[in-house]
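Practice problem 4.
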């Protein structure tokens, strides 16, 4: 039996806070696209997407998020924060470290949130956006408003992680928790033990538990944010709109996020926007429907490049930052 495919070899780059481990493919002078993974997943959500985009001429960068895989904090005193502002600013600092003034940002779950944060707060750094489940900047102020019971049931781990029991459970069996979440998130996805084992390697990061627990406690108002992100969090609390060209995707087999129509999905996107509903795809959409995800990135590039032609001052402002 052949070995399961992997994104390797990994490269490393130091940002202001992290030693980021990432995979890169495609021509060095290609249009940059950052592919951002979610929780509880890893960079191999893009194991089929990355080569498709590299073959299309993109410079593809797939980083491990903070607390995952080989990515490490540079300082023992750095807060192991998992809040929305931290995830987003990690992307900006990664782009700075790699000398990338603007990029297409594409992601789902935590990665989609990070991409939305950057697109909302630093649109001059974003050529275009691809976001599974649409606008993912959390409304922390409304976090105590209940959802429908059938949706709350799928988010059991949000509340589990508020407790010490949940923290111990995640520390003791992160793979087992991931398995349960994957099954609920993607009921049509027949993933195997090898896929789960490959992703679970990323959960061995020494900061995984702290980052994950803080993320869910912060989003539900049960943990303060790290002070260095206070200004960014204040801006995000206003739920800023996103004006960069955007493709949103909903999987028609997502166990937690019912697919919407284009009007609902585009409510907070003020720039060019297209919405796609992907049959048989669940929450880990790039791994479950790689061709559809790669096609969305290609289309986002077309929209972004068209905007750059029409608004050359936007491109010039971004280039001046590099």
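Answer key:
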């Amino acid at each position: 039996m052949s070995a399961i495919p992997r994104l390797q070899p990994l490269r490393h780059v130091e940002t202001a806070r992290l030693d980021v481990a990432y995979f890169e493919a495609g021509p060095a002078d290609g249009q940059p696209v950052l592919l951002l993974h979610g929780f509880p997943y890893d960079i191999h959500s893009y194991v089929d997407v990355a080569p498709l985009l590299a073959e299309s001429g993109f410079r593809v960068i797939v980083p491990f998020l903070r607390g995952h895989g080989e990515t490490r904090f540079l300082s023992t005193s750095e807060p192991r924060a998992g809040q929305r502002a931290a995830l987003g600013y990690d992307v900006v600092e990664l782009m700075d470290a790699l000398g990338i003034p603007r990029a297409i940002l594409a992601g789902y779950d935590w990665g989609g949130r990070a991409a939305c944060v950057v697109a909302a707060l630093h649109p001059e750094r974003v050529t275009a956006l691809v976001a599974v489940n649409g606008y993912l900047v959390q409304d922390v102020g409304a976090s105590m408003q209940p959802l429908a019971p059938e949706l709350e049931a799928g988010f059991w781990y949000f509340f589990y992680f508020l407790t010490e029991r949940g923290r111990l459970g995640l520390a003791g069996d992160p793979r087992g928790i991931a398995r349960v979440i994957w099954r609920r998130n993607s009921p049509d996805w027949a993933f195997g033990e090898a896929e789960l084992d490959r992703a679970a390697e990323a959960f061995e990061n020494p900061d995984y538990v702290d980052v994950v627990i803080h993320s869910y406690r912060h989003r539900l108002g049960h943990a303060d944010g790290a002070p260095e992100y206070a200004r960014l969090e204040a801006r995000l609390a206003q739920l800023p709109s996103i004006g960069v060209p955007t493709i949103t995707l909903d999987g028609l087999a997502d166990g937690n996020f019912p697919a919407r129509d284009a009007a609902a999905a585009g409510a907070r996107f003020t720039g060019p926007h297209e919405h796609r509903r992907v049959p048989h795809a669940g929450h880990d959409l790039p791994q479950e429907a790689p061709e559809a995800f790669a096609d969305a990135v290609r289309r986002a590039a077309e929209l972004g490049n068209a905007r750059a032609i029409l608004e050359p001052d936007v491109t010039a402002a971004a280039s001046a930052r590099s």
